[in-house]
């Protein structure tokens, strides 16, 4: 019946199909939320895991298995699953079509769910994948939901999965970087716009499909906090995408023109189209001028360059060009110079060999002297044209750039592969800054993190105070790259706060005298902000002003009549230019004031300062007793 509805539907007013209402009615009547379409062709070894991962999904669904002429027993296994789960699994058998587009279209024509998800038979889903994606779609009225993809022996897209997004704008996000069909699609949208797979394509049929869907999607959502789709590499290399023909550069360039033509036919000229075209130029066109270009023969290189030039003639705009990096802009200018394209490919693929050979404080302990070695090593040393490197610089890059934070470029002195430079940390705003080394070659700048390869004698420099802000050089984990934390955002400043004396004063105030030491650093008196009392069980806090002195000394007074019952731990809080830094106050038992008891109105209050066992840190126990409780305790 569903097949008849799909075939009967024609164009209706407003671009809708005349059968659209009937289709929605069928979906509502069946109560199916998701139709999962699984094309199967000789995947017997993987089909068990795939179907099991689908059957445990906690959504109302149907599984449409389309056997595309399997001869390895996969057809029989699919029938066995359907016989065991007749209400969930349907199996369709057809002659081998040679690609995934045909069986996916067959499954789509039979689908009855409100949403459709495509899953290849050699891949599988996380147990909560459909539940999470469906919840996202229902909450936002999504037409497409991207679930995080993880690769097992295969490369998976990552740029669009940095965070979950309810509504990801196509123009200002990375969702268009992912053009695989492993997504949740609203079926009504697919039917209304006749979105189908191109069965003439052996490779790239899903790119055409997904590009078309993006063009009509009103709301696109991303589930990034859960591993939804598991992309699996077949060790035998029998997957279509693992065959050598699927990686042929010329075939890919000719194929990719179809989705580009489709996209430009739907998206008017402007920033959105330029953003989408940038993806195709970077990931589809110019990527073929890298390693595939070097692996190609002389004649094929000319053909690849000609195909890319044709794409540039048809779709390159100033807006696209402005969005490209230096390497790709250089390639555009060199499309008629094959030798130049070869050199650019070698430069792009070369390994930035770098080593940190020295790191120390210099000139008043505000500048960090850095020495090292850097060079570009081609992947094929015996076959590449000579690569002559130019300028070398050090680059300080904010890890999470905020408004007004830009890269800081530092010139260096260079002699052969060796270089030396000085990082003035006083010019850096608070935050974490990663240190890179940049090498220029024929107008192209290659940048790489510095520090992982270093002399074994190099130690992490001690922290320094620069203009009232702490600077903490450190090596990242697990990679060991050099970074600088200005203000103590990810590196906890080390310090020791010791109690020098404590005594009771008028008003039942506990007076604390102490000092803070931070290794070679003497914090400015202005950095000492307050004393913080934190109740151990509830987390409640009381803050007390501190009188700070030069040299790290301080005095604080706490009126304990204001603290409720509980165990209160003492911290000294400092402002070091970033998040507040807290240090527990260490105390020797003989320096701690004795307990004190007094009546406040009808309440008996007892305050007992003490040094904790083990580490000897200052805490205070506060107890209160009402007359009723007092009598209950002492009278029979």
Can you offer a commentary on this structure?
The chain has 636 residues and is α+β, with helices and mostly antiparallel strands. It is built from 16 helices and 29 strands. The strands form 4 sheets. The chain has an 8-stranded mixed β-sheet, with helices on both faces. Strands 11, 12, 15, 16, 17, 18 and 19 form a 7-stranded antiparallel β-sheet that branches. Helix 3 runs parallel beside helix 4, helix 8 runs parallel beside helix 9 and helix 9 runs antiparallel to helix 10. This is Glycosyltransferase.
Keywords:
glycosyltransferase activity, Nucleotide-diphossugar_trans, disordered N terminus, 636 residues, eight-stranded mixed sheet, alpha+beta, 29 strands, transferase, Glyco_trans_2-like
Annotate the secondary structure layout.
Elements: H1 2-8, H2 20-30, E1 34-40, H3 44-55, E2 61-68, H4 74-84, E3 89-94, H5 101-110, E4 115-118, E5 124-125, H6 129-140, E6 144-152, E7 184-186, H7 187-192, H8 205-216, E8 220-232, H9 249-266, H10 271-285, H11 291-295, H12 298-315, H13 318-322, H14 326-333, H15 338-349, E9 351-362, E10 367-377, E11 392-398, E12 408-411, E13 413-415, E14 418-424, E15 431-441, E16 444-449, E17 464-466, E18 469-475, E19 482-486, E20 496-505, E21 509-517, E22 528-535, E23 541-548, E24 553-559, E25 566-574, E26 581-586, E27 596-600, E28 603-611, E29 618-625, H16 627-634
Parallel strand pairs: 1-2, 1-4, 2-3, 6-8, 20-26
Antiparallel strand pairs: 4-7, 5-8, 6-7, 9-10, 10-14, 11-12, 11-15, 13-14, 15-16, 15-19, 17-18, 18-19, 20-21, 21-24, 22-23, 22-25, 23-24, 25-26, 25-29, 27-28, 28-29
Helix pairs in contact: 3-4, 8-9, 9-10, 9-12
